[in-house]
Amino acid sequence: MRDVTLTINGAPVSVAVDERTLLVQLIRDDLRLTGTHVGCDTSQCGACNVLVDGEAVKACAVLAMQAEGAEVVTVEGLAAGETLHPMQAAFREHHGLQCGFCTPGMIVAGIDMVRRLGPQLDAATVRAELEGNLCRCTGYHNIVKAIQAGALAMAGAVPGSGAVPVAAE
Amino acid sequence: MFAFAYHRPSELADALAALAASEEAKPLAGGQTLIPTLKQRLASPSDLVDLSGVTALKGITLHDDALVIGAMARHVEVATSPVVVAHLPALAALAGLIGDPAVRNRGTLGGSIANNDPSADYPAACLALAATIVTDRRELLAAAFFTGLFETALQPGEIVTAVRFPLGGEGTYEKYPNPASRYAMAGVFVWRGGDEIRVAVTGASQGGVFRWAEAEAALAAEFSPAALDGLKPEADDMIADIHGSGAYRAQLVAVMARRAVARLAAAR
């Protein structure tokens, strides 16, 4: 067992873990943040996407020890109280989900897209960028619309600063 | 996963010492292949030496005649680095085709070539660009480094520290990705500089990445897609698995090669 110390959704934590512990196991089993999902457990589906130092990673393919000293943000850390992150709000507004299992990873992927590519995302770009996220319900159409709208909404906020209120439509 | 001890040194010497301390120790780069491999219990290292803290393995530097990319440069960095985009655009484009965005945020050049997966993308670029693989103790041309399926010339405890890509000429990479894994079903990197032409093929051969000599000879006579008409690698030498037969992969190699040549010819 080793201590791993990191920041999770802004709060410092230190947890004794077996070296074999995956980051997603630390998040779900030790920290009880179950918004991050395990879909395939083989790096294909992206349901376990979280932000590590601002970048989307597949938490099923990273050891908890590799996140030592990192700032990890899960889907639970995006909203500010009752105010959804613009990307979350866009998924609700555009009905970018059905069962919702893939949604936390989709939202994290969307935020990562905006960080790398900016807020102006055409549909083809979003579809290509979603190659690492699988949805078995929606056919992706509304997910693409949600990410495009969320990206524009984020442009009104300070990038990477977490949640800001979204103007009512 | 089987149990292992985890180390994250910040100095190269400490990483090498940790690797030398156990015959069963393994370096951990981005982990995008190694962690899934460990999860499937296909490897059981005694120690994992995480190289992510070793600054000496990072960075991309432009020299007069070459671009030197640190082993721990992540795919996203190679894909978006202005210096790579400006001087080796085909290499940047190739890096942007690896896996998916989250994988590219973690996976590294050094990890990819040290693993030498027969379907990985970087080995094709290293062969076609005649890159030099720099390790902690020597330098090897890519042709000597890649020795077979998941096999390299690396000795126990030896790690890749950087890759030196010569500048000059022009190249392009065409890939047919497996729709699920994004690994190459066939990937062909075509490069030419003056009279010299190199065609490197990944994803297809049972022997891993290879130079396709017949295609190179045909293109030397006439650099056009038509020059490759009727040419295919030997189907019996290609990988045959649930994703495709040897004949299918041989056909894909031929198609990817013609597309790459067409794109290079059009760019002139």
Task: Outline the structure in words.
The complex is a heterodimer of chains A (169) and B (268). Chain A is an alpha+beta fold and 169 residues long. Chain A folds into two domains: 2-76, Beta-grasp domain (Ubiquitin-like (UB roll)); 86-155, DNA polymerase, domain 1 (Orthogonal Bundle), CATH 1.10.150.120. In chain A, 31% of the residues lie in helices and 15% in strands. Chain A has five helices and five strands, in the order ββαβββαααα. Chain A has helices at residues 23-30, 86-93, 103-117, 123-129, 141-155, and strands spanning 2-8, 11-17, 49-52, 55-58, 71-73. A five-stranded mixed beta sheet of chain A has the order 2-1-5-3-4, with helices on both faces. Chain A is globular and about 45 Å long. The model of chain A is unreliable at 158-169 (pLDDT under 50). With 268 residues, chain B is α+β, with helices and mostly antiparallel strands. Chain B has three domains: 5-49, Uridine Diphospho-n-acetylenolpyruvylglucosamine Reductase, domain 2; 56-166, Uridine Diphospho-n-acetylenolpyruvylglucosamine Reductase, domain 3; 170-267, Enolase-like, domain 1. In chain B, 32% of the residues lie in helices and 24% in strands. Chain B contains eleven helices and 14 strands. A five-stranded antiparallel beta sheet of chain B has the order 4-5-10-6-7. The N and C termini of chain B lie far apart (51 Å). The mean pLDDT of chain B is 97. The A-B interface holds A 2, 18-20, 22, 41-44, 46, 49, 55-58, 61-63, 65-66, 68, 109, 112-113, 116, 129, 131-133 and B 1-6, 8, 28, 31-32, 35-36, 38-39, 48, 50, 52, 76, 80, 99-103, 105-106, 180-182.
Quick overview of this protein structure:
By secondary structure, chain A is an alpha+beta fold. Chain A is 31% helix and 15% strand.
